[in-house]
Amino acid sequence: AKGEGKGRCQLFHQQMDIDYHYRQRLKADLREALAAGALSLVFQPLLDISSHRVVSCEALARWTHPELGPIPPATFIPLAEEMGIISEITAFVVRSAVAECSQWAGEIGVAVNVSGRDFRGLDLPGLVDEALAESGLSAPRLELEVTETAVIEETDLAQSVLESLSARGISIALDDFGTGYSSLSYLSALPFNKLKIDRSFVQDIAEDERALSLLANVARLGRDLDLTVVAEGVETEDQLRAMLEHTGIQQVQGYFFSRPLPARDIAELISHLNG
Ligand code: C2E
Ligand code: CA
Ligand code: CA
Ligand code: CA
Question: Where does 54-170 show beta strands of DSSP type E?
Fold first, then answer.
């Protein structure tokens, strides 16, 4: 048994070595991809729950590795944070998303994900001013999504940066709501316009009454604070119906309506749904 334990231990260390080398390789290649302009964006629509019109689109970063294929953002965004290059990615995403949005018909907005590191590592108000001026997009059409974790990492800085963005008319969304820390004090302290309820609250609502009741109560909390309430990860018509009948949720996002799409396809989807 002792020998077996040792064998397992060796296997464990081999696996750690593989992980370590894999991550080192990804890091080097990510730096290169960013410099070469090889990152791209896809967009996923947020729709009004009753009219099914597209209200805005969320920009999501994509990286297709030349040999390893698509690397999910859940892998490369944390790597970029570790490497200290997340701000360069955020700057790329803000500039491209704003430029793309200025091409869309109607008053459709665009949402960009911001990392907690960006509060310190980036002049967000400066970047936003520049991108809006270059594209001619009006401030209310840009929305920044921040997670509870990002805000908690940098409480004081987050407050002053978000207030300065909010003063410009930029919309601020609290992302993945319900998955982070449950201290709600900052919900009213920070200038949020929107609450995005994490998809884990949506998953079971068609089968499980208690899950539906929980979602309805989280939505009510948002409505009581005068926030626009969005449900993420809507995958089925039954989920949509339950939400429409039993919660005050105003906007929905998820595979039921559309997967994230490249820019050229999203413009077409918008004119199809809203036209
Ligand atoms: P997020 O901000 O919560 O983005 C929503 C994620 O849920 C996206 O995954 C989207 O493709 C996925 N999703 C949308 N609808 C559904 C659905 O109906 N079912 C399921 N199962 N999933 C759905 P994605 O694109 O893989 O992004 C994962 C996370 O990576 C994002 O979560 C965000 O935290 C981060 N991320 C992506 N792009 C960026 C970026 O440009 N900057 C930063 N800082 N983070 C990013
Ligand atoms: Ca998001
Ligand atoms: Ca989210
Ligand atoms: Ca999420």
Answer: 54-65, 69-71, 109-113, 142-147
Q: How would you class 3 by CB atoms within 10 Å of its CB: exposed for 0-12, middle for 13-18, buried for 19 or more?
A: exposed
The pTM score is 0.94
The alpha carbon of 4 and the centre of ligand 1 are apart by a number of angstroms equal to 41
Ligand 1: lining residues by beta carbon, under 6 Å: 44, 60-61, 72-74, 77, 93, 113, 115, 175-176, 199, 233-235, 253-255, 260
pLDDT of 1 higher than 50: no
Q: Which mutation among 44, 113, 200 tests ligand 1's pocket best, with the greatest number of atoms within 8 A of CB?
A: 113
What pLDDT does 153 receive?
82
CA of 149 to the centre of ligand 4 (A): 12
pLDDT, tens only, 188-246: 889 999 999 999 999 999 999 999 999 999 999 999 999 999 999 999 999 999 999 99
Q: What is the DSSP string of 110-160?
A: EEEE--TTHHHHS-HHHHHHHHHHHHT--GGGEEEEEEHHHHHHTHHHHHH
**pLDDT-derived band at 151, boundaries 50, 70, 90:** confident
Choosing from 71, 77, 261 the residue with most ligand 1 atoms within 8 A of its CB, the one to mutate for a pocket test is 77
- Give per-residue pLDDT as tens, 179-197: 876 567 778 889 999 999 9
Residue closest via CA to ligand 1's atom 17 equals: 233
pLDDT one-digit tens code per residue, 108-129: 999 999 999 999 999 999 999 9
